[in-house]
Amino acid sequence: MKPLRIVGLVGSLRQGSLNRMLMNALVARAPEGMNITVLEIGDLPHFNGDLETIPPATVVSAREAVKASDGVLFVTPEYNRSFPGVLKNAIDWLSRPYGANTLAGKPVLVTGATGGAVGTALAQYHLKQVLLYLDTHILGQPELFVGSAEKKFTDGELTDTDTAEHLTKALALFAVHAQKFQV
Predict the structure, then answer these.
(1) Distance of alpha carbon 147 from alpha carbon 93, whole angstroms
(2) 119: buried, middle or exposed (CB in 10 Å: 19+, 13-18, 0-12)?
């Protein structure tokens, strides 16, 4: 079986965010044969339909990375019971123009971290609605809600063994899921 190339998108631009720490923990726990490359969505300009046909270089690069990938990993915070605008902006660039949706057919894993108890459940639910419309193949189980996340990281590193074990198992299941769609 060929190696899996996974693109990761973090819905927070803050370098020290809980969700960036979560993405780093996921990258560190990728199973053998899976390579996760984080796409920096903060480099993308605000979506502008006037630029769809001749997009900026950062957009072209992001689209090419997703198109060449075997799956996409979304790590989202929860802002106002939804996912952040910066992540929606990236999704808009990746899914447009009409007929050129680079997310279509991609296996997807969604997770997120928050200081609250529900671990981005509502943001993930909303994000999954958008991703379902965009014809992605969302891994429904396990759900990955990392609540009380500030207690699970020390100096940017995941130190909670239960969470680490859950992430490792989820990534292994995502690898099986993504392999089903490899061409």
Answers:
(1) 29
(2) buried
Is the link from the previous residue into 97 a cis peptide, with omega within 30 of 0? Answer: yes
Q: Write the CATH number for 121.
A: 3.40.50.360
168-178 pLDDT, tens digit each: 999 999 999 99
Rounded Cα gap, residues 77 and 111, in angstroms: 9
Q: Sign of the C-alpha dihedral, residues 121, 126, 132, 137?
A: negative
Strand partners, 113: 146
Tokens of 65: 């990375």
| Cβ atoms < 10 Å from Cβ of 118 | 14
Distance CA 113, CA 99 (A): 33
pLDDT score at 1:
65
- Name the one residue in this structure whose structure tokens are 């943001």: 123
Inter-residue contact 75 to 9 (CB < 8 Å) = yes
Q: Cα–Cα distance between 106 and 67 in angstroms, integer? A: 9
Number of domains in the chain: 1
Q: Residue 75: which domain range?
A: 4-179
Instruction: Looking at the chain, list the stretches that DSSP marks H as alpha helix, in order from N- to C-terminal side.
Output: 18-28, 57-68, 85-95, 121-133, 161-179
- The two beta strands, 153-154 and 137-138, are unpaired
Spatial CA neighbour of 59 closest among 18, 95, 83: 95
pTM over 0.85: yes
